[in-house]
Amino acid sequence: MRRSIPYSDSERRVVDERPGMFGGPAIPMYNTPVNPRENICAMYFDKQPYWLPTSSETAFAIPDLYNKMLGRAPNTTDCFNRYWEFVEMVGGSITHGGNPLFTDVNEWKDHIVIPDIDEWDWAGEAEALKIDTRLSPLVSLVNGFWFERLISFMDFEHAAVALIDEDQADALMELFTAMTELGIKVIDKMIEYIPSLDGINIHDDWGSQAAPFFSEEIARRFFLPFMQEMTSHIHSKGRYASLHSCGHNASRIQLFIDAGFDEWSPQAMNDTHMLYEKYGDQIIIAVQPVLIPEDSTDEEFRQAARDHVDRFCQPGKPSLIGFSRMTQNPAFTEEIYKYSRAHYAKMKA
């Protein structure tokens, strides 16, 4: 296999560049044996990449049409008539609290009309969306279809109560059924009009900085069946399913695995090292590097990179490298590539 090709220093020759993430500086493209897209797909589908990938190797996109209709487009009213107000302090948009569509889920059909997405201009969106297919195209469905969506309808306090109120349980399942069906239709439209997509990233924030918002029992009852339905559908289309779930949700990792997600990028308050060691053979984890002092020498950064690869690139347990100030250090990032390339080239596929 091509992954057995020994590393060559010629691979560090810059052959092009690509735009930086979130408006950052341009990122060099190197003379790699395969492009970043092929490397990401090798990680997801073969469980053995050519080198340790970073999240920046995906062509991460939030289509404007989705963002306006179902996402969190700043200062925009979405298809459910919820206004998203941009809050500069947090750098994002939220629905204005104190004005829920309803406070009891039993009333949801009186306030929510499921949109006919066949009427949306998917062809125009596909034409406007410019995706760099040298990277792995990944579309992110911001605001999701379950707890985050419920919050946007009800405000947080009412959404939290709905999860523990037996009088609302049946209606909650009906609402999540409708939202999941909507999500699957959206995914189908995106794959139809943007066939280059490799993956679908689903949002559902489940925790604060200290702990999850709700018990695992509640999560398994109200969320797991719908997550399984959606990830199964994504897999049936030959795509990978990744999860965005902010918060201290390490204790929910088995549920994410049971839900069928291929990858989770936890926030730094989670122990990503423990998660990789215990669960890395079941789900891909974006692992945070061990921090060393910023004034460390180049050789110390290179040693940190080698230590990271030795620990988090085990056979059958690929990982991503999480966003960190370490990944901004040129010596660290160069050594991550060089050492992991040689490491995977020697590993039996």
Q: Taking strands numbered 1, 2, ... along the chain, how are they ordered across the largest sheet?
A: 3-7-8-9-10-11-12
How much is the radius of gyration in Å?
21 Å
Shape: globular
Helix content: 25-40%
What composes the largest sheet? Answer: 7 strands, parallel
The overall average pLDDT, rounded, is 94
Distance between the termini: 8 Å
Class by alpha and beta content? alpha/beta
- Give the count of helical stretches: 13
Total strand segments = 12
> Percent of residues in beta strands?
5-15%
Quaternary organisation of the protein chains: single chain
Unreliable sequence segments: none
- Listing every helix as H and every strand as E from the N terminus to the C terminus, the arrangement reads EEHEHEEEHHEHHHEHHEHEHEHEH
Keywords:
single chain; 349 residues; alpha/beta; seven-stranded parallel sheet; 39% helix; globular
Task: Describe, in plain words, how this protein is organized in 3D.
This protein is an alpha/beta fold. The mean pLDDT is 94. α7 (166-193) packs parallel to α9 (224-236) and α12 packs parallel to α13 (330-346). 39% of the residues lie in helices and 14% in strands. The chain has 13 helices and twelve strands. β9, α10 and β10 (263-264) form a beta-alpha-beta unit. The strands form three sheets. A seven-stranded parallel sheet has the order 3-7-8-9-10-11-12. A three-stranded antiparallel sheet has the order 4-5-6, with no helix packed on it.
